[in-house]
Amino acid sequence: SKRIFWEVIESRTSCRDFDRRAPVTAEEITAILSAAKSAPSAGNLQAWRAFIFEGSAVKAQLAEASRGQEWIKGAAAVLIFCAEYELSAAKYGKRGKRLYSVQDATIACSYAQLACEALGLGACWVGSFDESAVAQLAQTDYPKFRPVSLLVIGRPATGHRRRRSTRLALAELAKLEDWRQPKNP
Predict the structure, then answer these.
(1) Which tens digit of pLDDT belongs to each residue from 37-57?
(2) What letter would DSSP give residue 160?
(3) How many CB atoms lie under 10 A from the CB of residue 69?
(4) Which of these, 72, 181, 61, 79, lies nearest to 132 by C-alpha position?
(5) Which residues does residue 51 pair with via DSSP β-bridges, in sequence order?
(6) Which residues contact 3 (CB under 8 A, 6 or more apart)?
(7) Beta bridge partners of residue 80, listed in sequence order
(8) Mean pLDDT per 10-residue interval, the chain, length 185 residues
């Protein structure tokens, strides 16, 4: 329903404080990836792939590759969303390679992040990382699959304070033109 959708949107925050002893279940991972799979994509190519990691050693390496964001180590899992450039390029040329595949991966990651919120999990999008180091850790066929975002997920720690960050006014973000009024020539 509309109400539930808006509750998820309005309650979403970035969580960086996880319960280290509470794993995310296989069913939850499947639900998160199913939400990502539902995301729109250019030409329905779905030019993205996700790689999921739960091991402590890999999370520590991802924290290091993410410019020292140590809190990543405490998460239950890290999902690495990668753009599949050549798939988009084959249909859309340079723009598909540079833009559409990245859009596909980031929209899928956004859907996954909202699914985490709907499931009561904490999640945080990470965009600051060494791309080649993350690709090497994920053992992706780089550069065929280029990492564009990490989604760090887990159960929020007891006492975790959900803080909603301040948002700009809608008028600052979007030009709301009254399309119903005729334009002066």
Answers:
(1) 999 999 999 999 999 999 999
(2) -
(3) 18
(4) 61
(5) 80
(6) none
(7) 51, 150
(8) 80 93 96 98 97 96 98 98 95 95 98 96 97 91 90 91 78 75 66
CA-based nearest residue to 101, from 149, 138, 133, 140: 149
Amino acid identity, position 125: W
Backbone dihedral angles phi then psi of residue 16, each to the nearest 5 degrees: -125, 10
Give backbone dihedrals phi and psi of 171, rounded to 5 degrees, phi first: -65, -25
Radius of gyration of the chain (CA): 18
CA 162 to chain centre: 19
Number of other CB atoms surrounding residue 181 within 10 Å = 7
Closest CA to 122 of 17, 1, 32: 17
- Name residue, tokens 């390679």: 97
Residue type, 57: A
Where do we find the tokens 């050693």? 57
Q: Please tell me the distance from the alpha carbon of residue 164 to that of residue 53, in angstroms, as a whole number.
A: 27
Looking up tokens 């995301």 gives: 39
